[in-house]
Amino acid sequence: MTTALPRADVAPVASAKRRRRAPGWLAVVPLLVFTAIAFGLPALAILDGAFTAKDQTTGATSYTGANLTSSLQGPYLTALVGSVKLSAISAGLGALLGLPLAQAVVSSRSRALREAVLTASGVLANFGGVPLAFAFVATLGNAGVLTVHLGLTDKGWDLYSFWGLVLVYLYFLIPLMVLTITPALDGLRVQWREAALNNGATGVQYWRHVALPVLAPSLLGGLVLLFGSAFAAYATAAAMVGSAVPLVTLQIADALSGNVLVGQENVALALSLDMVLVAGLVMAVYLPLQRRSARWLDA
Amino acid sequence: MARRLTPWRWAVLGLAALYFLVPLAASVVFTVDVPGQGVTFDAYTQILSTDGFTSSLLLSLELAVATIAVVLLLMVPAVVALRLGAPRLRPVVEVVCSLPLVVPPIAFVAGIVTVLKWGPDHLSRTPLFQTFVAIQNPSFPVVLVLAYVVMALPFVYRALDAGLRAIDVRTLVEAARSCGASWPQALVRAVLPNLRGALLNAAFLTLALVLGEFTVARLLGFQPFAVWIYNVGGSQAQMSVAVSVLSLLVTWALLLALAGAGGRTQTASSRG
């Protein structure tokens, strides 16, 4: 940012002004350069690799859409659909169960309960991954405490299945929903409820015609956030089911490490691109909704 | 009205408590009550002497410290500058910091693996190749720090932005400057103390992210803490669950410590 200033401008006032402006640009530059390298390069690699085919014998590369096509066929398509289904169902259940919990906490007016639940939610929403999987294996796995003591295996229970994964995912999705929806529930005015009740509405009618419409953007936003979170989850599934349930994250990991077939790296990148597209769609829905619900909270 | 809701509320809270506490309690039982051996605390006493525990935990902590340092060094000047001198860059930074949300970790690591392969494939005769080798040094994989900083950007940006919204940065800096402080002094001694809660928040989120991170580390072939737990799980089920329980307790303690240290600032700012 060295500008060729006329000598007269290097007066105290001008230099103070220049000093204020110069850090403004300079302070942001390292961040932009860093993300361009650490994030931009891998992102470009995904994009480039997803459209590149490498001839195994000659080593020559050419641009093609074949990777993307094969990433939407056969076992890969099954995995993608499985991931979307699992994420949609667990996000839906998470939102459905998280809302009453958040409402119970908000309406209790007990500060201690509220602090405790919100702190616990903060911890549990981050308690994904390997430890979560192992905690559930110890509880409901084949040799798990509850499985053994209640004889659940005879009743057809299997943790290493689609619904087992849903049950485990809810463990971090419900707290995430509580964290997301609590500010919106706080924004519901007591006066609105009182006004509705004074006009002869029942509690159910208040929820249907007043509260839920106001909450709708936040609810939908939370739902989308939960979906994205479940969709991207890999560690929990990898530590729990291995590859018993077809999921796109597991497929990418397998293809990358060459577990199934050699030379599937480019299909892995195409699958990654599929995931980025789905996640991008999720964010495109989420961000405007978040802005819309923020309007109610500020009002 | 409130009284009529009470039983419903207690039912919801009770069911939630059951769902969230039973796996934890059962995990503890699982580690302590070993079939055929009765009640034993071996799973906990053996942790320290098990191969790889100390080294993987240390690696995770080192990675966490490096990531927190880098992400704060990059982000704090940038977000303060956005408030003071470069508001027009704000949308750019916002988009840049949201982009990692669009790329799931598994896709991100697929990209990183590809980039790292360029090293041997194309760059083996250039000085850059040495850089590629150096950042993959197993005793301290810099490449993981780079990846974690990117993954932490959205959370850190949000935490810092919320903290800055609560204080009047311009007035603080101008006051400090007119009292004769230099720019770095104004930033370090006037702005940063007021951002204590936000900085702690950002640091904690990053710490939790790095300590629990599994996807990127495993697929790049390194063994920090989460990957170690996973590897141990194959052979020593009891101990892997014991470590999982302990790691949850540690996270909990850290969060409570954070609430204690930053709580006053946060309530003050939310009222202000």
TrEMBL record, chain A:
Coiled coil: none annotated. One of its GO terms (biological process) is transmembrane transport. It holds the Pfam family BPD_transp_1. Its main location: membrane. PROSITE patterns: ABC_TM1 (PS50928). It is a multi-pass membrane protein. This is ABC transporter permease. It comes from Streptomyces diastatochromogenes.
From TrEMBL, chain B:
Pfam families: BPD_transp_1 (PF00528). Keywords: Cell inner membrane, Cell membrane, Membrane, Transmembrane, Transmembrane helix, Transport. GO terms for cellular component: plasma membrane. The chain crosses the membrane at residues 55-80, 92-119, 139-160, 198-221, 241-261. InterPro entries: MetI-like (IPR000515), MetI-like_sf (IPR035906). Its main location: membrane. It is a multi-pass membrane protein. The keyword tRNA-binding does not apply. Residues 57-258 form the ABC transmembrane type-1 domain. It is found in: Cell inner membrane; Cell membrane. GO terms for biological process: transmembrane transport. Belongs to the binding-protein-dependent transport system permease family. This is ABC transporter permease.
